[in-house]
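Backbone-to-sequence.
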């Protein structure tokens, strides 16, 4: 089986200071995952985990910077007003982040000083489905999937 590549490729960083994790074909919204990834990119792992837990508990909103027509304003957001609480996508990304943190711990890295160097989400395959309609017709009812990649670096 061929190995899958990461979108991140930095030759300058020592490989012993890098931990990676990925998840493929998650049944979460690509739009929500892109917005979550851009919100936590560059954060320390402990702060990112706290932020994602707050999103899951609906205490903090994720700013929606693209495709935000009709998205309501949320209180407590600095520099941006439109936002939502994508709970399902936050749970999935939190799992991948905890997996990357466990990989770093296994490599012997200092877990307290980890920073998210790279996080990205890409569209996966579309699971085709259909809903029967009146007069023998069919409406498509598709499920999008998403690939998540996380690279942590010891600061």
């Amino acid at each position: 089986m061929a190995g899958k590549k990461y979108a991140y490729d930095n030759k300058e960083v020592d490989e012993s200071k890098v931990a990676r994790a990925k998840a493929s074909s998650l049944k979460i919204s690509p739009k929500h995952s892109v917005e979550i990834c851009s919100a936590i990119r560059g954060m320390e792992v402990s702060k990112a985990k706290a932020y994602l837990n707050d999103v899951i508990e609906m205490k903090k909103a994720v700013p929606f910077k693209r495709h935000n027509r009709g998205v309501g304003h949320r209180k407590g957001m600095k520099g941006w007003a439109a936002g939502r609480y994508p709970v399902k996508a936050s749970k999935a990304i939190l799992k991948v982040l905890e997996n990357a943190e466990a990989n770093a711990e296994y490599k012997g890295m200092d877990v307290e000083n980890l920073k998210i160097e790279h996080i990205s989400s890409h569209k996966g395959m579309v699971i085709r489905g259909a809903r029967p309609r009146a007069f023998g017709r069919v409406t498509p009812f598709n499920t999008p999937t998403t690939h998540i990649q996380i690279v942590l670096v010891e600061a």
